[in-house]
Structures are given as structure tokens and as C-alpha cells.
Design goal:
Helix 1 crosses helix 3 and helix 1 crosses helix 5. The chain is mainly alpha-helical and 120 residues long. It is built from five helices and no strands. The chain is globular and about 35 Å long.
């Protein structure tokens, strides 16, 4: 059964935050951002895990913005980000761990970005 197109603003912000966090973690661990293939794989994993449905335009828009936002956050002078916090962004089941202040900050940044672009 196909998932309906059901990503509201908060779900889009959460998917975007997941992708941004994935980019930041990859950069911290490997020195490189995620490849396009890994972004597609991460998007698909998030949608399946969360029962989300997104059309091609939503997926492309969110995944293409994720690297831009990750680069902004990497250079942002935010005390919440340190080398150690990037490795605590995810739970064991590869979901964002919102107990982490860094995960909440990334989510809020993504939500603000989406509202600011009027893509809500």
C-alpha cells in the first residue's frame, strides 16, 4: 500500500533536520558530506521509518536544501555544537534523538527556514 502525501510542516522540518544531522555527522566522521546516493537513501529510510509520504518535489526540495543548511550550521557560532554532540544526534534506531539539545536546535533551525521560505 502506498503512503499518502502526508508531510505537514512539522514532518517536513523533521525530515530536513534528519538530513541536515546526517550531513553533519558524516562530515564529522569522514571529512566529507553525504553523497547524493546517501541522501536519497536517508530520505527513503526516514519516510519508511516514519510512515511518511512525500512527492518527488518535496523530496528533492528538502534533500537539496539539507546540505546548504548543514554548511550554515557547521560554521555557526552555536555553543550547542561540538565534536561530541554530533555523535549523539541519533538514537539506536537511527531516529533523531530530541533529548539532545543539538537535535532540537537543528530541528528549530529547519522549521524556521521552511517558514521563512514560505514552503509550509
Amino acid at each position: 500500500m502506498k503512503n499518502p502525501l502526508n508531510l505537514d510542516l512539522r514532518a517536513r522540518a523533521e525530515l530536513l533536520a534528519y538530513l541536515v544531522s546526517s550531513h553533519l555527522l558524516a562530515k564529522q566522521l569522514t571529512g566529507d558530506w553525504l553523497s547524493h546516493g546517501h541522501v536519497v537513501e536517508s530520505t527513503t529510510l526516514w519516510l519508511k521509518t516514519n510512515g511518511g509520504g512525500a512527492d518527488v518535489m518535496q523530496r528533492v526540495m528538502l534533500s537539496s536544501r539539507a546540505l546548504e543548511l548543514a554548511r550554515q550550521l557547521e560554521t555557526a557560532p552555536l555553543p550547542v555544537f561540538s565534536r561530541q554532540t554530533f555523535t549523539t544526534l541519533f538514537c539506536e534506531n537511527l531516529r533523531l534523538d530530541f533529548r539532545s539539545e543539538a537535535a532540537r536546535t537543528i530541528y528549530q533551525h529547519c522549521l524556521t527556514y521552511l517558514v521563512g521560505t514560505r514552503w509550509s
